[in-house]
Specification:
Radius of gyration: 33 Å
Number of strands: 22
Oligomer: single chain
Strand content: 15-25%
Largest sheet: 6 strands, antiparallel
Helix content: 25-40%
Shape: elongated
Length: about 525
């Protein structure tokens, strides 16, 4: 997942900045919704407004138009960019035609946690013209042709204009009775403009101690945030990485930025560089183990190839024993027979079995060996392909490149905790894996186990994942800290959700995630 987050304060400031930059400019009437989960609004002057809404990105930038898009005409005018107060929703109104005739459409950006989406809506009949991600959630159906219903507003206190004395009284009435360690949750539920980005900075010491002055100082900070007019764009230095924001927050390190768009550009470049420079040492070691395993398998199969024909020999021995079954003495370990060429043979038998059972065992062994010999060419071919695959992967990893399929394959096969064969503890309803960052991932074993895992073996703050709209295991990424877990660990947990679903053979598997408490 991307380290970038959107909250109502950021979205409203971003709408103001985009409005100043784009108002009156010409744009293409149909945004481009791409498979990489980007939404691109083509602008005049050879530019485009690009929203990267993939879970691993989360950026908005004004970029140069791609060459293949240059010929597309810009026949709509941007008349407004706005964001409802205290909502994670941004809207760009496009008027197609001239001032006297034409229609209006809106490019709507929904920026809710793990549900980022972009939709083109006809404002006349409120129907969805096109969209980035089709989905059904929260009683809403987002699909082309459906009437668009925006998410339910939060309706938190302070969204409407209120006098400062009244606001202070409400603040104290709602937060003073709450234990300090629970005030953060109450703040996020009750007061407009608050989010996981700014909650700690707003509360300050009021989140850890009973102090009337600290709670009053926290109110002053919240009030200032709600009524701050001028933006002072910065990059907050958060635990998860750099976070664009309209202004500094108390107690949070920051870097200045010329604009929010510049801040997003910096984040996009930093995260791209980080992705290309990540340490691949662990992956190299795992890939080497997979390559060695493939080579050992080839050696074993070659040993089996040397035994080809054994099924025929076993069947011949069974035929001879059957022909001389009456000569087998009780308790004998061998029986002497003569083959078709007159040679004397001593066939071993199990003295604990009746003679005919010995014959049956030989025929069974011959059948099993025959089936194994039939499969041998296919198994050898697979093993050689596997060896070539991991030889190529290892060469790429040692060159600093990570093929897309490698991490998923290694997570599936090598991050699983070893099974404890001697354990006598109670059966767990989940399998345990470890991400490359060391975080625990729990994967439900059966459909009955899924609910047990979700509601009895996970904490409210853990991350819950499931392959979208297909049967599959519930997956829980253990996470006890504030904010989102590292993007790489979340990606690996999402890969496990995809692997343990009915869509595992698809080229791309969409995975939804949220906090378990939601």
């Amino acid at each position: 997942m991307s380290n970038t987050r959107f909250d109502p304060v950021l979205i409203r400031a971003l709408a103001a900045e985009l409005g100043a930059a784009l108002h009156g400019r010409m744009a293409h009437a149909l945004p481009v919704f791409d498979r990489d989960l980007s939404a691109t609004l083509l602008l005049d002057r050879g530019q485009a407004l690009r929203w990267d809404l993939h879970p691993t990105r989360g950026w908005v930038r004004i970029v140069a138009r791609a060459p293949e898009m240059e010929a597309r005409p810009a026949e709509a005018r941007i008349v407004r960019v706005a964001a409802p107060d205290d909502e994670r929703l941004l809207r760009i109104d496009l008027h197609e035609g001239n001032r006297f005739k034409g229609g209006t459409r809106a490019l709507v950006l929904e920026l809710h946690t793990n549900q980022w989406n972009a939709l083109l809506v006809d404002t006349a009949d409120r129907r969805i013209v096109s969209l980035l991600r089709t989905r059904e959630a929260g009683g809403r159906t987002l699909r082309s042709g459906e009437v668009y219903h925006p998410p339910e507003p939060q309706r938190r206190y302070g969204r409407e204009s209120v006098p400062i004395d009244e606001a202070r009284a409400v603040w104290l009435a709602r937060l003073r009775p709450v234990p300090p360690e629970e005030r953060r949750g109450e703040l996020l539920r009750q007061f407009a403009g608050t989010s996981p980005i700014n909650a700690a900075a707003l509360l300050g010491s009021a989140a850890s101690m009973e102090d009337a002055d600290a709670l009053d100082a926290a109110f002053e900070r919240w009030w200032a945030v709600r009524h701050r007019a001028a933006a002072e764009p910065v990059l907050l230095v958060m635990k998860g990485g750099l976070q664009p924001y309209p202004f500094p927050l108390d107690g949070v390190s920051f870097r200045t930025a010329d604009s929010l768009l510049d801040a997003f550009e910096t984040v996009s470049q930093a995260e791209t560089v980080d992705a290309t420079q990540r340490d691949v040492t662990a992956l190299v070691n795992r890939a080497r183990r997979r390559l060695e395993s493939a080579r050992r398998r080839i050696e074993r199969l070659r040993e089996e190839e040397a035994k080809v024909g054994e099924a025929t020999r076993l069947r011949e021995r069974a035929d001879l024993l059957l022909a001389h079954v009456g000569r087998v003495q009780p308790g004998a370990k061998r029986v002497t027979v003569h083959d078709a060429e007159g040679r004397t043979l001593k066939l071993p038998v199990d003295p604990a079995l009746p003679p005919l059972e010995n014959v049956k065992r030989l025929y069974d062994d011959a059948r099993r060996r025959s089936r194994a010999e039939e499969r041998l060419p296919e198994l050898m071919h697979r093993a050689i392909v596997e060896e070539e695959r991991w030889t190529s992967a290892l060469a790429s990893l040692e060159a600093g490149e990570v093929p897309p399929w490698v991490e998923a394959a290694l997570i599936r096969a090598e991050t699983r905790e070893p099974r404890q064969a001697t354990s006598k503890g109670p059966r767990l309803p989940y399998r345990v894996y470890r991400t490359s960052g060391g975080l625990e991932v729990r994967v439900g074993k059966t459909s009955k186990d899924n609910d047990v895992l979700t509601f009895r073996h996970s904490a409210p703050g853990d991350v819950w994942l499931h392959a979208r709209q297909v049967p599959g295991s519930h997956v829980v990424l253990r996470w006890s800290e504030e904010g989102a877990p590292p993007a790489r660990d979340l990606d690996e947990a999402a890969t496990l959700a995809a692997i343990h679903s009915k869509a595992r053979s698809s080229g791309t598997v969409a995975v939804d995630w949220t906090r378990r408490k939601h």
